[in-house]
Specification:
Two copies of one chain form a homodimer. Chain A is an all-alpha fold and 239 residues long. Helices cover 63% and strands 0% of the residues of chain A. The structure holds a DNA duplex (30 and 30 nucleotides).
Chain lengths: 239, 239
DNA sequence: GAAATTAGAGAGCAGTGCTCTTGCAATTTC
DNA sequence: GAAATTGCAAGAGCACTGCTCTCTAATTTC
């Protein structure tokens, strides 16, 4: 009985889902800044003020979309990395990185929402931090795993001293246990390098210079991976 | 006579300048997406439709601001690099990079306009390409100069083969003569690395991980510089 | 079944980019 | 120097935006 017609709470969740998916569809066409509540409502055959029952403000809707996007991207990268044997961290990094890039290219507006200019006046709520960290965690856990199964010590000691104290160790201590502190800093560098390349490609800055973006990206990841992987952590660098 | 009161053409240029500076001021407060023609007009004590005599559309005003910002940033980085002795390309790179970062931090909204998410539906006109390239040119010319005054050959031959054909050589041939092709590709990597770091810092992605952003940035630049500078191109890496 | 809660409709407010017409002033033309 | 032309700002108006408020109808709670 209560199965045929959804209860009110169910209907509410369903409606929230419908609003988000309609927004995603519109955002894919016109981009996040151009996302209009009224258009979403119009598209759903509902009056605009009705949406405010579910999202008290436009920013709240955007926040929900951001959280979903972070999780989606995190899942996608994680799955890609998990399809590669654990004893080959270099290929794992490659897989994760190119998955991120692939996701970015198929969801450019959502990528821009996550990693482009922050909306001015919009302060990311605290609960967006965790899903955002998930994405970075995919990369850092590959590196951590590689160091865990390695006997290598103190490679790159030359920069060890200058790097000490650069990080907020409390945070990264728990996330990357067993990884030398300099390598943790270099992991942040890997992280920014990957997203920097993707952003530049997506935002059109490579136009006229990079011909084969796929290969360029693969090389960049491979080069940067040298900085963070243990000396004999896996098979020698390929291709 | 014609000196006391500006001629029509002069007045026009003056008004254009006033519109742009007012826009810059408002943009510094509320960011580029929130820049409103009506508010600019209000601020100038003029009716909004009057602005359309000078900029046919909001996008045209934004374009003008973008071009100015690219040039401003380019000048700033160039001057910083030129204050460092030419025989020390590593320090030149450091100077240019940290100038770019400094500019970004004092003009965050303009930086976001240049290197953040592109405004959807806004296609950058061709004449923005040249001022945009100027900024990258500051970095690439430091690298080029370093290779010109070096006898080093074929360092990093290991990635030479995979890198061949990745770039649009026609463009970079003229810009970086005498620089080995793989190094040209790595220069693009340096370029994205620098801007990737700045963007991440400015857009808040380092919150909770990087403690000393200044030192982190310096290290990143120094690390990446290793990839593009000739073996004995200058003094050994410092600090 | 009465009371309380909730969803949607509709009107309305202040803001936006942009267009068009109107009047006035400065410049060019003759 | 008078006349025609051009450039500028003003103001009204259109279609749009996010958001608030009130009202009605439906559902859930007790």
């Amino acid at each position: 009985m209560s199965e045929v017609r959804p209860t009110r709470a169910e209907a509410r969740l369903l409606q929230i889902e419908r609003i988000k998916s309609t927004s995603r569809r519109l955002m894919a066409e016109k981009g996040a800044p151009g996302l209009s509540l009224r258009e979403v409502a119009r598209e759903m055959g509902v009056v605009s003020s009705a949406l405010y029952r579910y999202f008290p403000t436009r920013d709240d809707l955007l926040t929900a979309l951001i959280v979903d996007a972070y999780n989606d991207l995190g899942d996608f990268a994680e799955r890609a990395a998990s399809r590669v044997p654990r004893d080959d961290p270099r290929r794992q990094l490659q897989a994760a990185a190119s998955a991120i890039r692939k996701w970015a290219k198929s969801n450019p507006h959502e990528y821009a929402l996550l990693y482009g200019s922050p909306v001015p006046g919009y302060e990311a709520p605290l609960f967006t931090v965790e899903p955002a960290a998930r994405v970075a965690l995919v990369l850092s856990s590959i590196i951590t795993e590689a160091w865990r199964h390695s006997n290598a010590e103190g490679r790159r000691d030359d920069i060890g001293e200058t790097l000490r104290g650069v990080l907020v160790t409390r945070t990264l201590d728990g996330v990357m246990p067993g990884v030398p502190e300099p390598v943790r800093a270099l992991s942040l560098m890997l992280w920014s390098q990957i997203f920097g390349c993707i952003s530049f490609e997506l935002f059109g800055h490579y136009k006229g210079t990079v011909r084969n973006a796929n290969r360029f990206f693969a090389i960049v990841v491979d080069e940067t991976a040298n900085l963070v992987l243990p000396p004999d952590g896996g098979p020698t660098r390929g291709t």
